[in-house]
UniProtKB/TrEMBL annotation:
It holds the Pfam family Response_reg. GO terms for biological process: detection of stimulus; phosphorelay signal transduction system; regulation of sporulation resulting in formation of a cellular spore; sporulation resulting in formation of a cellular spore. This is Stage 0 sporulation protein A homolog. It comes from Candidatus Aphodomorpha intestinavium. The lineage of its organism: Bacteria, Bacillati, Bacillota, Clostridia, Eubacteriales. SMART domains: REC. Keywords: Activator, Calcium, Cytoplasm, DNA-binding, Metal-binding, Phosphoprotein, Repressor, Sporulation, Transcription, Transcription regulation, Two-component regulatory system. The gene is spo0A. May play the central regulatory role in sporulation. It may be an element of the effector pathway responsible for the activation of sporulation genes in response to nutritional stress. Spo0A may act in concert with spo0H (a sigma factor) to control the expression of some genes that are critical to the sporulation process. It comes from the Bacteria. Residues 5-123 form the Response regulatory domain.
Length: 260
């Protein structure tokens, strides 16, 4: 029974820790290495041998597509089996990864156990040319979709603003007019659900957005929305951010319903 060497590439530190910890505990895994961006990943691929590459798409310096494009050059003899694990989920991106040799495309959030199962299948499967072995469908629930946006934005789940912001997006998604009554209805509604005050909700949401901007994930958000929504000095207000995310998710759902 073969043992596999794994390289996990993602700019989210907590995600790297979770995935590397899970994979390191599996008996089929010989070694686990990590990289925080595409440039570091390519350096490690040149220097060592890996059987599996778990790859995010949105990263600084060199993104996931850049790594895929250079993979055959840095590993000409025996490239690793690639699983893309990303919050980016449009069909053109899936096709591009497919054409560049990815075996699976999995959409965050996804459990480490599910990624591990696909990793074993990819490592043990026949090499593919221009075709995915599988595509894990995008998350269906609204909460999962909001969580995927927060993963890209770099908003950590342990802060209160994360939960308040998620509730605010959910409320505006179901009733878009609530964004026009943010101080009179939206904040008090969130506060009532969590047993706190509207002013604390407002401050916590502002802090969550500030965390995302401090972490420099603006380019990730721009990539998620498909155009340059914000620059480094263009931090949105609470209402602007809630409305932007809710509107994006609502348009995606309407587009999906029209396609059915």
């Amino acid at each position: 029974m073969a043992d596999f060497r794994v390289l996990i590439v993602d700019d989210n530190t907590s995600y790297l820790e979770t995935m590397s910890g899970y994979f390191s505990a599996q008996e089929r895994i010989e070694a686990v290495d990590t990289a925080a961006d595409g440039r570091e990943a390519l350096d490690k691929l040149r220097a060592g041998r890996y059987d599996l590459l778990l790859l995010d798409l949105i990263m600084p310096h060199i993104d996931g597509l850049g790594v895929l494009e250079q993979l055959s050059l840095v590993c000409p003899e025996l490239p690793p089996a690639v699983i893309v694990v990303s919050a980016m989920r449009n069909e053109s991106m899936v096709r591009r990864c497919c054409a560049l040799g990815a075996r699976y495309f999995m959409v965050k959030p996804v459990e480490p156990e599910a990624v591990y199962r696909r990793a074993l299948e990819a490592a043990e499967g026949e090499p593919q040319q221009g075709g995915l072995m599988g595509y894990a469908q995008p998350p269906r629930s609204l909460d999962e979709k909001i969580t995927a946006v927060f993963l890209v934005a770099g908003i950590p789940a342990h802060i209160k603003g994360y939960h308040y912001l998620r509730e605010g997006i959910r409320m505006v998604y179901y009733d878009p007019q609530k964004i026009n009554r943010i101080t009179k209805e939206l904040y008090p509604g969130i506060a009532k659900r969590y047993g706190t005050s509207a002013s604390k909700v407002e401050r916590a949401i502002r802090h969550a957005i500030e965390v995302a901007w401090t972490r420099g994930r603006i380019e990730n958000l721009n990539a998620l929305f498909g155009y340059n929504v914000y620059g480094k000095n263009d931090k949105p207000t609470n209402g602007e951010f809630i409305a932007l995310v809710a509107d994006k998710l609502l348009m995606e759902e309407q587009s999906r319903e029209r396609a059915v």
